[in-house]
Amino acid sequence: MNIKFWKPLVIVGTLALALGASLSSGSAQVKNGGTFIVVRDNQWGAYNLNPFLPGDQHLLPTLSAIFETLFFVNSISGDVTDVLGTEYKWSKDALSLNVTTRKNVKWNDGQAFDAKDVEFTFNYVKKYPALDTSGVWNNGLASVKANGTDSVTFTFTKANTPIFTYVAHMPIIPEHIWSSISEPLTFTNQKPVATGPFVFDTYSVQALKVTKNPNYWMPNKPAVDSIVWTVAGGNDGALLRLLKGEVDFGYVGVTNVKADYADKNPALNLYWWPVNNANFLYMNNAKAPFNDVNFRRAIAMSVDTKDVAQKGYNGTVAAADPSGVIPAQRGKWLTAAATKNAYTFNLEKAQAALNKAGYKTDSSGGLLGKDGKPLGTLKILVGAGWTDFIAMAQVISENLKKIGLSTSIDQQQWSGYAGALQTGTYDMGISWGWGNGDTPYDLFYKSFSPELSAAVGKQADSNLTRYTNATVTKALQTFRATSDATKRKTAINQMVKQVISDVPFVPLTDRSQFCLFNATRFTGFPSDKNPYNDGSPDDGIGARLMYLNVSLK
């Protein structure tokens, strides 16, 4: 549920990030040619390259190599890279957004791209609402109109600047092709016309191939001749092929990435796992005893998140910050004042807080409710077989036992797991943040907005704790309605301060992307030193930047 929702607000955006020196045209250091091989752990579906269908319904290269968007918004840093758009500007009242489109771009059938294609794309999505999976037309967008051939104006009925990322990431389609497509949901688009760096070549259930677009708008790019996706049966098979140097890239989760991959050949076995989310202990604020803030704070103080991170990921990622904000965003968005009252792991303080709030223990040390009755055994919900979450739950269970709380680990298959979280029929549950993106707004909006909650038994979109607070709600509204950087930061810190005080959930560990590279044949991979994308998987729009950067050694 990695929802990407907003860009860091700068009213005028001429922010195209260069893709690194390796993308400069005419670089003598770049060696052209070669086939870049991507390994997948599981097989893909039918021969379909319709960019508007969900990711599990279209083939992997669709959005990462073939179609392009106006901009790419890095979900970790918030940095914006120009693609088919070259500049953007919000009006002072944030009710209109003007985008300048790139000149001298051609579709891969030779016809010219211009701003009218952008206008057509958005209005086509409006005409067929089932295509609007990001909800741009349901969140204040009123009209999209081209101003000649090089500019487009987006007009809104209400200020909602976080919608920028959804606008930025819409795949742009050619009017001269799609204007005749009257049933887009069943259109398989097997010969896609697009502006991207590659064109589709061949399909089978075991391999996909795209080849270099010779007329791509970026000079001398891409450097590679083709990309091939291959399938290996499961994570272990994908890891083995990477270890053998048979493939160049895989988005593969490994229990101990350093020992199981990197250390086996440090010069060639590279990984980049940038933190883009967190794992949380969700507490059901709609039911006792979790409807008591004092009880929730005691739970938070009782969980040793450093041990949780160590047991869950062998130290690959760190314990999460109590704010829930990811490391790359803390320096830019958080103030010391907002986090000064953050809780820390302290069992004695947790026990004292419980006693002060009216919770007692029985003769055997078991925790009693305020009514003097045993709290019984509370369940910690995890996905069945999810070894990282199970390990985390075991640590938490042992921690909570020390304050007299009895727990059990409740493993559920996906439908039962997600269903319990969304209908509020759980006690506690471990999951990733169901709303992350390029600013902390995404986390707090998706986690605590009232419209994303629901009564117990009804399905909540993403407010899994069912916690709402007037201060948080007002700060969310302020953030949406302004383009002033200072006001936005103030709003974020109001949310952080309130959430740290009320503890609706407990941030447990950082959560990362899972990029593994074998550098036997290619160079130019993203890394901590050159984070030109956000560690996107091979089918994400950010992967396009990697396919443009890599070249033969």
What does this protein structure show overall?
This protein has helices at 61-66, 115-127, 164-168, 175-178, 234-244, 257-260, 293-302, 305-313, 327-333, 336-339, 347-356, 387-401, 414-423, 440-448, 470-481, 485-502, 543-549, and strands at 12-13, 35-40, 71-73, 80-82, 85-90, 96-101, 141-146, 151-156, 198-203, 207-212, 226-231, 249-251, 269-272, 275-283, 377-383, 406-412, 428-432, 505-512, 515-518, 522-523, 551-552. It has 553 residues and is α+β, with helices and mostly antiparallel strands. The chain folds into three domains: 12-32 and 44-195 and 540-545, Dipeptide-binding Protein, domain 1, CATH 3.90.76.10; 199-272, D-Maltodextrin-Binding Protein, domain 2 (3-Layer(aba) Sandwich), CATH 3.40.190; 276-512, Dipeptide-binding Protein, Domain 3 (Dipeptide-binding Protein, domain 3). The model is unreliable at 1-27 (pLDDT under 50).
Q: Structural class per helix/strand content?
A: alpha+beta
Could you tell me the number of beta strands? 21
Q: What helical percentage do the residues reach?
A: 25-40%
CATH superfamily of the largest domain: Dipeptide-binding Protein, Domain 3
Q: Determine the mean pLDDT.
A: 92
Strand order of the largest sheet: 9-10-11-2-12-19-13
- Tell me the domain tally: 3
Oligomer: single chain
CATH architecture of the largest domain: Roll
Radius of gyration: 24 Å
Query: What's the helix count?
Result: 17
CATH class of the largest domain: Alpha Beta
CATH-assigned fold name of the largest domain: Dipeptide-binding Protein, domain 3
The CA-CA distance between the termini, in Å, is 36 Å
Question: In one word, what is the shape?
Answer: globular
